[in-house]
Amino acid sequence: MIDVSIVLTVYNAESYIEGCLDMITGQTLRNIQIICVDDGSTDNSSQIIEQYAQKDDRIVLIREKNAGAGAARNRGMQEATGKYILFLDCDDFYEPEMVEKAFRRAEEEQAEIVIYKSDQYNMDTEEYVYEKWAMIEWALPPYEPFNRRQISTNIFRAFVGWAWDKLYLREFVMKNDLKFQEQRTTNDALFVFSALVLAERICTVSEILIHRRVDTRDSLSKTREKSWDNFYHMLLALRQMLKDHGLYTEIEKDYINYALHFSLWNYNTLAEPTKTKLREKLLGEWYDELGISARPEEYFYNEYEYGQYKDMLNFTVEKQ
């Protein structure tokens, strides 16, 4: 059996794809499957991947119409045959032992999820910044493996809802029918948080194994202007997942606190006029639907976030 299937999403990545494939094919764990899903690229990404595939039979190229990273990852999962599965983005870069260290840790602990550390690489300043918020170490138990019940903070804040710093047992993913949302942005959080909630055996690697490239000229913020409501659809789907598994009553407080946090993060990072549009939706409908409006101040973990929520309410009243 293949040890790890790597699903690599690719979209107009000719600037990065050669270096990315060099790092993946050069991983110290050799028994891997490399599934490259080209999400409708209009540049030479596919041609470059084809050239690599001719020299390395571990590489599989799948061409799809442009439908976003969520759809591409779901398509890649269909081809995965490894014991474990890993989802990567082609503009990041990786330590040469990343896959092997995550795989060995999973095998040692019979883990369903292995989470490792990451940092940001700022392309303007060429500086590395450790992403300490991606793994809240003080909240984790002093033993491994663990599950959500042993984490001493909000389960949705202990780790970030991105997929690429986590190795997953494929059997666990298939058994729970985990899928990525096929929407423009916030398409991996449902998959990640569902996995973290359902897993009984989670462990970590206390090393930085992946470097996330950050370009201040990136168009992600502009993309979010067009998909400003995607986070809300994720929150609704996450709540439904919790209810389907009979877990919502147990995790409701964590969920509602995270819903407030994530809605404020989206609000604070949007530009006008989309920001006003989102505020009106939150106050007019969504805070009620998410169960936030019905809760008293002492229900919320973060005083600052609750304060901003109240300021939004007061702003609307004053305006009226």
TrEMBL record:
Q: What is this protein called?
A: Glycosyltransferase family 2 protein
User: What is the organism lineage in this UniProt record?
Assistant: Bacteria, Bacillati, Bacillota, Clostridia, Lachnospirales
Keyword terms, alphabetized: Glycosyltransferase, Transferase
Q: What residues does the Glycosyltransferase 2-like domain cover?
A: 5-156
CDD domains on file:
Glyco_tranf_GTA_type (cd00761)
Named from the GO MF annotations, one term is: glycosyltransferase activity
This protein's source sits in the domain of life called: Bacteria
Enzyme type, top EC level: transferase
Recorded hits in Pfam families, A to Z, give: Glycos_transf_2
Q: Does the keyword Transmembrane helix apply?
A: no
Q: Per the UniProt record, which EC number(s) apply here?
A: 2.4.-.-
Where in the sequence is the signal peptide annotated? none
Tell me which Gene3D superfamilies the record gives: Spore Coat Polysaccharide Biosynthesis Protein SpsA, Chain A (3.90.550.10)
